[in-house]
Amino acid sequence: MAFGLLIVGIIVCAPVVAAIYRQWQITRTPIKQVLGVVRISPNKDAVVPNAITITFNDKVDEHILEHNFSLSPDLPGTFKRTETAVNAFTYTFTPSTAFSRGVRYSIRIAKGLQSARGLLLENAYFHSFETLLADNTVQFTKNGIAGKVLSYS
User: Fold this and answer.
1) Using one digit for the tens of pLDDT, what is the confidence trace for 114-152?
2) Any residues with CB less than 8 A from the CB of 81 and at least 6 apart, and which?
3) Is the peptide bond before 42 cis (omega within 30 degrees of 0)?
4) Helix residue spans in 28-153 (DSSP H)
5) Nearest 10 degrees: Cα torsion 118, 120, 126, 127
6) What is the pTM of this model?
């Protein structure tokens, strides 16, 4: 008798469970995976950094990143990748010459940068930072003397 009730229960419930599962498959929205910048440094103001580090959420080929990365004012350099944690990939840009003091640097990573798994950077990424002057330096910004620097002792 119990076996018969079990069979009836399966026969009655199976179509209901199947209908709920089909509806769930139709209505669920897949999560779109995209390439993203997780972290970048230096932040707003930096003394004089040795390098720029950019962490993505997926692996990117250094050569592809190099062609999609721009720094203004232009400063040549090289990229190197280091895995820092699960699902985080850090790339270090080391300039060939030192960053200058008192300069605002702007970074742009082009839209469409593609990761090793095919994830795309959907929008261009922008970041800027300014290197600080030495403690005994004043930089003028107005009245015909903009850009002039005075150092004192």
Assistant:
1) 999 999 999 999 999 999 887 656 666 666 665 555 555
2) 59, 60, 62, 89, 90, 91
3) yes
4) 62-68
5) -40
6) 0.68
